[in-house]
Amino acid sequence: MNKGSINVSVENIFPLIKKFLYSDHEIFLRELVSNATDATLKLKHLTNIGEAKVEYGDPKIEVKINKENSTLHIIDQGLGMTAEEVEKYINQVAFSGAEEFINQHKDADGIIGHFGLGFYSAFMVADKVEIITKSYKDEPAAHWTCDGSPEFTLDVADKTDRGTEIILHIAEDSKEFLDEWKIRELLSKYNKFMPVPIKFGTRKETLPLPEGAAEDAKPEEIEVDNIINNPTPAWTKTPSDLVDEDYQKFYRELYPMQFEDPLFHIHLNVDYPFNLTGILFFPKLGNNINIDKDKIQLYQNQVFVTDEVKGIVPDFLMLLRGVIDSPDIPLNVSRSYLQADGAVKKISAHITKKVADKMGALITQNREEYEQKWNDIKVVIEYGMVTEDKFFEKSDKFALYPTTNNTYYTWNELIEKIKGNQTDKNNKTVILYATDKDSQDQYIQIANEKGYEVIFLDSPIAAHLIQKLEGTKENVSFARVDADHINNLIDKDEVKISKLSDEDKEKLKTQINEGINNQSYTVQLEDLSATDAPFIITQSEFMRRMKDM
Ligand code: ADP
Ligand code: MG
């Protein structure tokens, strides 16, 4: 038997990276700005612990377009690299990373990073890349050049200020990345909340007039750095340091096109069993299920990962808005990978629990306010109850069941209230409900006059919720208030009195039935004493549910 190892040729790596490493070419900018950020934060740490004896100062990252030379520049004031470090981090990592990449390539769809290959994503848009870098250590600057072939050059450079400049010579087929609008768009998508200030161009700022200035004095205009990011977004702060307005303001930052205030927020702050921060907002939803517009955004250490969160967060949370940030969310990976990732699954379960806990806290803190908002949040809660068992289990605490007369009960309150009066001869407690106050008004009145409560369930998922509740709660059934005669809906074996003879009743029913001409409806003549109506028409629960599902 012959044994050996397959020799991976370096020549093959660059075209592979270029084609398959990331499905989205545009993320090269996120990768390079991430590296610049890392370099800056590393320096911050080293100066903090006294290992780097230099002034940390007020560093920023600059992104610059040079149209004439067709170059894009990413410049940082971070820790820089010595020539030796360039050899180590840039030249070598590619080898091991690429090996790993090729081994795993078979089953990866959409292809993924986290092999330390972020830097090489530059070659997706550039046919030549330069690094000019000066370490904080007292060593000469280095100049690395590579045209996408395995050969590189490494020289001494005359850069004197600390930090790194990456120069991308943008390839012919990627000229869009020399467009100011394009770069602005990318920076605001991926880097809007990154922790180091990012400068892109300048803007004019008008200085306020000094006090006592002449009436016709012209305010002075100055040119300032155009910083495209907010390095300290609300979710990175301590909840107790923030007031409601801060959250509203942050909501606007996230969704500039949203003019309506969110109803409330949940500030997530978890450090065990994993790190997770974030803010979730409950928008005013009503019965409107629209999950496509302003979506929840996933971040990893303030770097935007995706807003395609289906399969990552539970479906019902996709009705919410906001930000989830966790270092455990792998960056640069395809969505199917994210969905299968164990850490991501745990995060998802944990968020569900947190939302349930928060709802429980909100209703205890201010029941009245919670009731007022119920109509706008019920879709999320009911959707969660129907689709997530863990959420359903906790929902007795915070799910409300409003009556047609606007009394709001929790499940236990409701059962407590109706148990005596609405339990039938089979010992089932019957929950009467209406789905439309106008058209079912007659029936609601009849039920109310008998002393029965009627619950109002009008959300688009009410039918599913009822099914879920009937399937889980013992000795309870639901009946729509117009599904049958009230005495049949809650059958207590009472005597029914009618002034008409049985024969007359049959005749009258036949006539009315002919008039309606619809098999799914039933005519009721018995015991109408509680209403002024001469007769009522009902549609069976079964027929109606068939229609609603
Ligand atoms: P990763 O960021 O996952 O380590 P990359 O391929 O993005 O992988 O970068 C490889 C390494 O190159 C980094 O870990 C870092 O050591 C070095 N590097 C890249 N960009 C910079 C920079 N702007 N300043 C200093 N070092 C950098
Ligand atoms: Mg990187």
UniProtKB/TrEMBL annotation:
Q: Which UniProt keywords are present, listed alphabetically?
A: ATP-binding, Chaperone, Nucleotide-binding
Concerning InterPro entries, the annotation shows: HATPase_C_sf, Heat_shock_protein_90_CS, HSP90_C, Hsp90_fam, Hsp90_N, Ribosomal_Su5_D2-typ_SF
Concerning its family, UniProt says: Belongs to the heat shock protein 90 family.
Q: Which organism is it from?
A: Faecalibacter bovis
Task: Tell me the protein's name.
Answer: Molecular chaperone HtpG
Q: What is the taxonomic lineage of the source species?
A: Bacteria, Pseudomonadati, Bacteroidota, Flavobacteriia, Flavobacteriales
Which superkingdom heads the taxonomic lineage of this protein's source? Bacteria
Which NCBIfam families does the entry mention? PRK05218.1 (NF003555)
